[in-house]
Predict the structure.
Amino acid sequence: MKEFIRPILMNRKAFIGFILLSIFILMATIGPMIVPLNLSSNFAERYKPPSFQHPYGTDYFGIDIFQQMVHGARSVVGLSVLASFFAVIIGAIIGIARGYIGGFVSKFLDTIITIFLVIPSFPALLIMAAIFADRSLNMITVALIIAMWLWAPLAKQISAQVFSIKSREFIETSKMLNLGTFYILFKDIMPLLLPYIFINFITQLKGAMEFSVGLMFLGLAKFDPTHWGVMLNYALYQAGALYTPRGFHYPIIIMIHIVLLIYGGILFAQGIEEIFNPKLRRYE
């Protein structure tokens, strides 16, 4: 743990990204236990500005925005992490198989990867979400649907890494000693891929976050009134907060949180990549 934390503290990007992500993770995990949620409408409190009683103000219905943001963080962060995790698992398995097995299997997997690379991700995701819109999809199902359009680039890159690693001397030595495919994959190859897979997991959070917010914003996923995408839809279209000077803070606060979460993931991924790749380090 010390060997992992120390480089993060010394790398500016990784440290700032780690702080931002930690804030949102704490908001998603501990926040709902501390901050109560009251979704009862109170039009007398409509579009109240930020104050001590309402740190983020109130929305069109007079509901506290801060409470909604805290409770919505659980679905936003949870869905993004799950989708990124599934995408990394699928991409790693297919990428390792494509890079190591070779022959017909490798060509077949390469064709599958290429198909998913050339298909526009978000339009395809919208079509799939529209097909399943009438069904009650839980978070895991939605995360799997999102992951289907995130795994291909990682699989392509990992297959290239595996193809390069398997020609090294220690791999040939393991084969000569008949240590078996399982040993070679999980003892020789996988440790070299773990930093790269971890970096891609953090990077995938950005795409997973954008997809989840986009689906919720367009109303193509299971309705969650506190999800930031749903809140943004209400702020921009249903409530018309942009056209009301009193409600201008409503969509701005939501967009700031979305941007900060994505920005934190990008900084953390770039910092981790600099830590694992000495060629990217900057010495001041």
Remarks:
- The CA atoms of residues 21 and 63 lie 26 Å apart.
- The chain has one domain: 2-36+65-280.
